[in-house]
Every structure is written in C-alpha cells, then in structure tokens.
C-alpha cells in the first residue's frame, strides 16, 4: 500500500510539473530584457510598456471582451432555458434531437463548426442581405452557439442533482409554474448559471479557429492577433501579454475557489 | 377560471423556453451542416461565392460528387486522414497513461487537499489555450529551456531538434487535452469504494491483479468518456500542429483550413468536413450513449 502511495505521489508531482512549468517559464521570460526571447538579458518590464502602447493589441482585446460578455450573456439565457427544458419540462416533441443538438457542439471539431457557420452566414447574406459585414455580430452568434451547450449541461446537471420537492411544494401551495420557476428554481440554480456564464466568457475569449472563419476583414480578436504573431515564433511582448492573462485568470479562479469554500 | 387561464399562459411560456434555444440550434447548428453537405456537392468556380448553385439556370438540379471522388482517389487525403487518426489515438493513449495515475492519486488524496488538486487541474483550462501551446514553443526551441538544461547537464552536445516535429505535436496535444481526460476519470474513481481493492488484496490478489480485476472495470465509463473527449477534438486539431508541427506533418484540420482559405476550393473543403464528420459520428454517438448511461447509473 505504501509503495502505491509513493507511486501516485510521484505521478502527481510529475503531472503538475508538466502542467505548470511551461506557464511559469513564460512568466519568468516576460521580464527578460533581451529581444531574443529565449536568451536571458537581465530583468526589465519594458515589454509590458510596449504592450500597453500597442493599439492593435488594445483594439483586439476590447473587441474580444465585448464579444465574450455578449455571447456569454446570450449563452446563459439560452442555455438555462435549454437546461430547464431538458431537466424539468418532461417529454416534449423533438426532445431527442434537442438533447443531441445541445451536446454535439461541445465535441464538434472547431474547423467544422467554423466552416459550417461561415457557409451559413454567406448563404444568409445572399438570401437576405444580412450580415452585410462579418465581425462582432457573426463571431458573437458563433460563440453563443457552442457555449450555450456548456451552460445547458451545467444547469441541467445542477437541476438533476437538486431535489425538486421545493418546487413541488410551491406548486402544491398554488404557485403558478412560471412563478415557481422565477421564485424558486432560478435562485436555486443561480450558482450554476454564474459558473456557466464564466465558462462561456472564457471559451469565447479562448477561441481562435471559429472566430477566424466567421470574422471579416478588419475585425481581429485577441487570439487572432496573438496567433498572427506567434506563427512567426516566440516574441517577448506576447510573453508579457500571456503573463498578464495567467496572473489575472489564476487570481480570479483562486479567489472564486476560496469564496465558495468559505461558504461551504 | 382565472387560474386556468394563468396556467395556460404559463404553458405558453414553457413552450417559449423550449422553442427559443431549439430554433437557435436549428438555425445555427443543424442548418449549417445541411449547407456544408450542399456545397460539398457543388463545383468550384471563380466567383463570389466560389461554387455553383444547386439549381442551374434552367432550374435543373445540378449536383456533382467530383469533390468526393477527388478526395477518395487522391492518396494524399487518405494519408492525411490516417495520420490525423493515428496521432489522435497516440495523444489519447498518452493522456490516459499520464491522466489515470493522476486522477487515481487525486481521488485517493485526503479530502482537504482534493479540492485544491482538482482546481489545479482545471486552472490551466481557464488560461488561454493558444497561450498554453505558445508556452511550449519557448520550451522546445533550439535555444529553449529544455535544450539549455540538457546542454548544461552535459547530456547532449548539440541542441535537439524538438520544435516542428511530431514529438512536439504529441506534447502539445497531451498537454492541452490532459484535463479532459482527468476530470471524467476522477469522477468515476472518486465514486469507487477503496475497500473493494483492499478486500481483493486481503483475499490474496496481487495489486496488479486487483487493479485489472476491480479498479479498471469500475473506472471504465470514465476511461471511455475521457478517451473520447480527447480523441474527438484532437483529430480535427488545427492550432497545435500548425504551431508545433513540421511543415510536412499535414493533418486534416490544417488541410481543411488551407483548402478553404488558401485554395478557395469551398466544395472540396466542405467534402473534407463531411468525411471528417462521418468518421466522427461513431465516436460521438458512442460518447453520448456512454454519458446517458452514466447519468442513469448515478441517479
């Protein structure tokens, strides 16, 4: 038993090192003065300064944040409806197709999702004239479509784990179904909805392939900008940008974890 | 009477709650696939958009299997599909080999640290995927950290060529998809009663025997889910082979991207997508079955 314990400890240590050493090195090298990103040339914060003066980065980041906030909100609304429908509304016509369509976007290869949505937008434009220009709106629709699946799954599993006796008691006391949903169910699943929103927000900020398909000229999201730079190799200002993202995300996730742990 | 009307109104709202996401998915998920299928049966032309309409000027149905014929007769595509398949399988096995002991270790860790250990698995997933792949570019470079350490230790005399090789692609795939493997594995291993293994050992089974006879069968739903969650996205992966792989390591995601953007052959790109989708239908349906069974089992 003891050797098994040592084995799994070694594997865990190795596994976590595998996950975290690359990220730590990016953070370290972001403070490297040298222009050649892999050779140490002394400590400096100059790349952060250059990053903040780079309008292309700031524009791309702003576009990405707007798309992420909008698509996460839409995905939370649609995904919560879908989760409720699957967990609480019993059998309805087309339920099998519905539940298949909810889970499929999560496993669909990105190149296929991206290509199919672009072809849809092109066809729509031929038929109706909309969307005249691809950019904010088309990327937002694409991101909403794949991230609502994640929200639906989170909300649905929360509802499945939750006893429906509270909702039934409210119904027995004469509460109308809609009131029960708004007064009882939604407050109970609010944590799942928040988790879903955050996940949708992150997925949207993260996406490169789908956005590359459905965006038009002149609208580059942050991942598209990063990709266009790292294609050419390691670059010091991308190290600085990566460090900012790593620090922000880690702080946020840790804070959220501590907050939920204290409540529990 | 008023109550009945209100009830009916609520049912209307219930239908709206079903219909809104339903219509959204029909329009933005299902219809696009029909369009891919339609365009894969068109001819490429130099026009905007660059393919022939399904009905010609005379109103006759004008479809062609040219793109599919080309795809199936040109050996390059068959090789690319096969390569993508093989690379995805190897990456899946690597994830399983690293992920299983990790998931097992977390599931058997003390309860106070388990939450933190899981958080550390999920955390990289929240950090940009692209930047995590990028982190390996700095690590595997000819002047990168791995080569520097190996040179300093005197293990090698000249930098190893790590970047732009299949090895680098495997590292990238394993690194990026590892959390997808660990989480479902953890979920099943955590539900497992550790007394079962101990009972088997008390009855004289070796720890290897106990593993293959008890732990492995019980973990199977998690193994299946984890493997499919890695395999399915890995097969169409575009970014990792592009950034870490060599120029000759063509994978199907990249071929689709290039046919569409570089060659502007929309029908052929659509045909590539249709064939890829056909390859993935079996594992995707299998995953959904497995998931449904697992949910029933847990409930």
Can you offer a commentary on this structure?
The complex is a heterodimer of chains A (264) and B (299). Chain A has helices at 2-29, 46-53, 55-88, 95-107, 110-128, 136-161, 165-172, 177-206, 209-214, 222-230, 236-263. With 264 residues, chain A is an all-alpha fold. Chain A has a domain at 61-236: MetI-like fold (Orthogonal Bundle), CATH 1.10.3720. Chain A is globular, with a radius of gyration of 23 Å. The two termini of chain A are 32 Å apart. Chain B has 299 residues and is mostly helical. Chain B has one domain (74-298): MetI-like (MetI-like fold, Orthogonal Bundle). Chain B contains twelve helices and no strands. In chain B, helix 5 (129-140) crosses helix 7 (166-191). Chain B is globular. The model of chain B has no long low-confidence stretch (mean pLDDT 87). The chains are: A mainly alpha (264), B mainly alpha (299). The interface between A and B is large, with 86 and 93 residues.
Relevant terms:
heterodimer; A: 264 residues; mainly alpha; 11 helices; 0% strand; B: 299 residues; MetI-like fold; 12 helices
């Amino acid at each position: 038993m003891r050797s098994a314990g040592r084995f799994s400890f070694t594997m865990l240590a190795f596994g976590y090192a595998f996950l975290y050493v690359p990220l730590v090195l990016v953070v370290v090298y972001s403070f490297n003065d040298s222009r050649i990103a892999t050779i140490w040339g002394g400590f400096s914060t100059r790349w952060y300064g250059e990053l903040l003066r780079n309008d292309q980065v700031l524009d791309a980041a702003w576009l990405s944040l707007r798309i992420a906030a909008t698509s996460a909100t839409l995905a939370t609304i649609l995904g919560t409806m879908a989760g409720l429908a699957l967990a609480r509304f019993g059998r309805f016509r087309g339920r099998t197709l519905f539940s298949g369509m909810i889970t499929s976007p999560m496993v669909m290869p990105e190149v296929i999702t991206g290509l199919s949505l672009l072809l849809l937008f092109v066809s729509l434009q031929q038929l109706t004239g909309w969307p005249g220009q691809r950019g904010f709106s088309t990327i937002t629709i694409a991101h909403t479509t794949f991230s609502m699946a994640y929200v639906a799954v989170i909300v649905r599993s929360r509802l499945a784990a939750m006893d429906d006796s509270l909702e039934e008691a409210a119904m027995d006391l004469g509460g109308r179904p809609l009131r029960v949903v708004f007064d009882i169910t939604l407050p109970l699943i609010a944590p799942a909805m928040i988790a879903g929103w955050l996940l949708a927000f992150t997925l949207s900020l993260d996406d490169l392939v789908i956005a590359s398909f459905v965006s038009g000229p002149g609208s580059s999201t942050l991942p598209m900008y990063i990709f266009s730079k790292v294609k050419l190799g390691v670059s010091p200002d991308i190290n600085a940008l990566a460090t900012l993202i790593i620090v922000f995300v880690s702080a946020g996730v840790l804070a959220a974890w501590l907050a939920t742990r204290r409540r529990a | 009477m008023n109550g009945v009307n209100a009830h009916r109104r609520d049912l209307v709202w219930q239908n709206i709650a079903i219909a809104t996401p339903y219509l959204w998915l029909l329009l933005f998920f299902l219809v696009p696939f029909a369009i891919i299928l339609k365009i894969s049966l068109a001819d490429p032309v130099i026009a905007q958009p660059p393919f022939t309409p399904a009905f010609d000027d005379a109103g006759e149905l004008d479809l062609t299997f040219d793109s599919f014929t080309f795809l199936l007769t040109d050996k390059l595509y068959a090789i690319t599909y096969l390569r993508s398949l093989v690379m995805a399988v190897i990456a899946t096995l690597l994830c399983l080999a690293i992920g299983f002991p990790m998931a097992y270790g977390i599931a058997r860790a003390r309860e106070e640290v388990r939450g933190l250990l899981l958080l550390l698995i999920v955390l990289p997933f929240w950090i940009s995927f692209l930047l995590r792949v990028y982190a390996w570019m700095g690590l595997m470079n000819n002047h990168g950290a791995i080569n520097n350490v190996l040179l300093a230790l005197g293990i090698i005399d000249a930098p190893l060529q790590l970047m732009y090789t299949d090895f680098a692609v495997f590292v990238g795939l394993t690194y990026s998809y590892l959390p997808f493997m660990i989480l479902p594995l953890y979920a099943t291993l955590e539900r497992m009663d550790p007394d079962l293994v101990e009972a088997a050992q008390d009855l004289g089974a070796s720890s290897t025997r106990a593993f293959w006879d008890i732990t492995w069968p019980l973990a199977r739903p998690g193994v299946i889910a984890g493997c499919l969650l890695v395999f399915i996205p890995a097969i169409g992966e575009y970014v990792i082979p592009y950034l870490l792989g060599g120029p000759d390591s063509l994978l199907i995601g990249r071929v689709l991207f290039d046919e569409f953007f570089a060659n502007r052959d929309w029908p052929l790109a659509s045909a590539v997508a249709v064939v890829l989708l056909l390859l993935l239908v079996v594992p995707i349906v299998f995953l959904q079955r497995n998931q449904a069974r697992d949910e029933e089992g847990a409930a």
